Amino acid sequence: EEVSLPWGGKLVFLNSVVGGAIDARFMPAILKGVMDCMEHGPLTGSYARDVRVIVYDGKMHPVDSNELSFMLAARHAFSDAFKQAGPKILEPIYDLEVYVPADFMGDVMSDLQGRRALIMGMDSEAGYQKLSAKIPLKELASYSISLSSLTGGRASFTTKFASYELVPSDIQSKLIADHEAELEKDAE
């Protein structure tokens, strides 16, 4: 079964249980547990997407088994398996066009490189330089203020969503550590 996720991407969910180890009536609860864990993100609290889950075994008790038990077990199993699978975090990348007077071009390029931007090209347009780049959304947070400060308010920019790309491994490690610290703080 392929499930389109409300937050984008998909989940491929396969029931490969043989011999009745898990009654088919518990599969919707298992699917719900997996989707709940994906929605709240096992790594950083952000959505997980494009995952394949195969349920191949389990145990049932004729009296004590219920949907809640299987949903919770699925959440824990998914979280553990997901972390062991070596997942990668994606971040939104935007196309950026900056229109800047030529005498500020060096400062603007330097600032963009410090924001993990990838410079794609430069053109002259109506007395301004047009700089094209790809930049992570996170790095755009205070860009308007920074650009205004660098150019005395003489530059402008536009952005447009481009794609999702892998977060560098050092940033991924920091995001995971920050999320784990936040969870520990909330548990206290």
From TrEMBL:
Residues 88-175 form the Elongation factor EFG domain. One of its GO terms (biological process) is ribosome disassembly. GO terms for molecular function: GTP binding; translation elongation factor activity. Residues 1-86 form the Translation elongation factor EFG/EF2 domain. Keywords: Elongation factor, GTP-binding, Nucleotide-binding, Protein biosynthesis. InterPro entries: EFG_III/V (IPR035647), EFG_V (IPR035649), EFG_V-like (IPR000640), Ribosomal_Su5_D2-typ_SF (IPR020568), Ribsml_uS5_D2-typ_fold_subgr (IPR014721), Transl_elong_EFG/EF2_IV (IPR005517). CDD domains: EFG_mtEFG_C. Pfam families: EFG_C, EFG_IV. This is Protein containing Translation elongation factor EFG/EF2.
